[in-house]
Design brief:
The protein starts with a helix and ends with a helix. The protein is an alpha+beta fold. The chain folds into 3 domains: about 90 residues; about 120 residues, no CATH class; about 140 residues, Distorted Sandwich (Glucose Permease (Domain IIA)). β13 and β14 form a beta hairpin. α2 crosses α8 and α8 crosses α10. The protein has 11 helices and 14 strands. The chain is rod-shaped, with a radius of gyration of 52 Å. The strands form 4 sheets. Strands 5, 7, 8, 9, 11, 13 and 14 form a 7-stranded antiparallel beta sheet that branches. Keywords: Hydrolase, Membrane, Metal-binding, Metalloprotease, Protease, Transmembrane, Transmembrane helix, Zinc.
């Protein structure tokens, strides 16, 4: 054995001899005294046995502690599960509130956008009726405090829109009154343009219960924005009918050699009814359609010579006579300001001119009021067809239509 290894062993052995050196132990049992000598081997055996006892005692104590801790853990487990379940319920509730607030915010934003579209339509006259109808629904307040706090900024927008709605409603009502006045000045009843030639009392349609979603939407309508929408719809319907009204000049430079009504016949010199106005000009002067419509007739017709008759709807037609050339054909669709022919002197005529008529339900009416159409009706017609404004003069109208 090497010196490096034997030295520690020798020290341990010396310590053991010192610790377990032979000892004399005296016992007194109350009657006599006994002496016992314990050698090194006996002491070593005793210490080993004591160590085993202490070891088992420690193991028992550790086992008891572990069992107690385990029992405590089993007791705490149900409590922890309850806490976890409670936390999960609270989290689910918070998530539900967040979803509710988000949906409410989306609904508010959508309703505000719809109302903004209605306000824009009230000013421009252009809008989709079905989409704008959604703007009439109420914006329901929320009872949730957190949701109310999150949606508070929308409230300011709603207030501004409510103020604008009052202004827009006043403007719509003024425009409607102006439109009806302009229409009456031309010998037309507004009801004709809104409801057509015949007013029928017939009714019908599928049965929709009062408890249906459609009825609920009507009951949930916001009074202010519903009034705004209904006024816009009424004006829009009227302006759609205004398209039928002749509203531009049939020639670029307007003058008259003969007016509407009873006059002295240029051929016989006797009193005769003149169903239109005569507008003079050089042969070949462009003639323009005075309103949108469909050509009823384009060809020769008695004293009119070469005649074009255009049906504008709502029982309104116009006639253009004595033309030197017809540019369009029967059943063709024409636009306001479109060139339809050239001025001439065909038929019963004393010289180049345009014989221009306006008829309502087949009866001739004075064309003069239709030749001095207010700018408002022109603007209304442009809004109805979604186009840029067309000038009241023929050449400007020609340029606008690309001819």
């Amino acid at each position: 054995m090497s010196n490096s290894f034997s030295a520690p062993v020798n020290r341990i052995a010396a310590g053991a001899r010192l610790l377990f050196s032979p000892r004399n132990v005296v016992f007194h049992d109350g009657r006599s005294v006994r002496r016992m000598r314990l050698g090194r081997g006996a002491q070593s055996a005793f210490v080993g046995a004591a160590a085993v006892v202490v070891g088992f005692a420690g193991y028992g104590a550790a086992t008891a502690t572990t069992q107690a801790a385990s029992a405590a853990g089993l007791t705490a487990a149900p409590h922890n599960e309850q806490r976890m379940a409670s936390m999960e319920r609270k989290l689910a509730h918070m998530q539900t509130r967040v979803v509710t607030i988000r949906k409410s915010a989306e609904q508010h934003a959508s309703r505000l956008e719809q109302r903004q579209a209605l306000l824009a339509a009230a000013l421009t006259g252009v809008g989709d009726e079905k989409k704008l109808a959604l703007a009439t629904l109420k914006i329901d307040p929320t009872g949730d405090r957190l949701a109310a706090f999150a949606l508070a900024p929308f409230g300011k927008v709603e207030q501004r829109q409510a103020l604008l709605a009052n202004v827009a409603l006043d403007q719509l009502q003024a425009r409607y009154q102006h439109a009806t006045q302009e229409i009456r000045e031309r010998g037309l009843r507004p009801e004709r343009l809104v409801k057509g030639r015949k007013q029928q009392a017939a009714m019908g349609g599928p049965l929709i219960p009062a408890a249906s979603a459609e009825a609920a939407a009507d009951l949930n309508a916001d009074a202010q924005f519903r009034s705004l929408f209904m006024t816009w719809k009424k004006l829009d319907t009227l302006e759609q009918g205004v398209i039928s009204i002749p509203s531009v000049q049939p020639v670029a430079h307007l003058s008259f050699t003969s007016n509407f009504g009873v006059r002295s016949d240029p051929f016989r010199g006797t009193a005769a009814m003149h169903a239109g106005v005569d507008i003079p000009g050089p042969t070949g002067t462009p003639i323009y359609a005075t309103a949108d419509g469909v050509v009823n007739h384009a060809g020769r017709q008695g004293g009119y010579g070469n005649l074009i008759e255009i049906n504008h709807g709502k029982g309104i037609t116009t006639r253009y006579g004595h033309l030197s050339k017809i540019i369009i054909s029967d059943n063709a669709r024409v636009r306001r300001g479109q060139i339809i022919g050239l001025m001439g002197s065909t038929g019963r005529s004393t010289g180049p001119h345009l014989h221009y008529e306006v008829r309502i339900d087949g009866a001739a009416v004075n064309p003069i009021p239709f030749l001095t159409t207010a700018d408002y009706l022109l603007a209304a017609q442009d809004r109805s067809v979604g186009e840029i404004p067309v000038s009241t003069t023929g050449p400007a109208a020609q340029d606008a239509t690309g001819h």
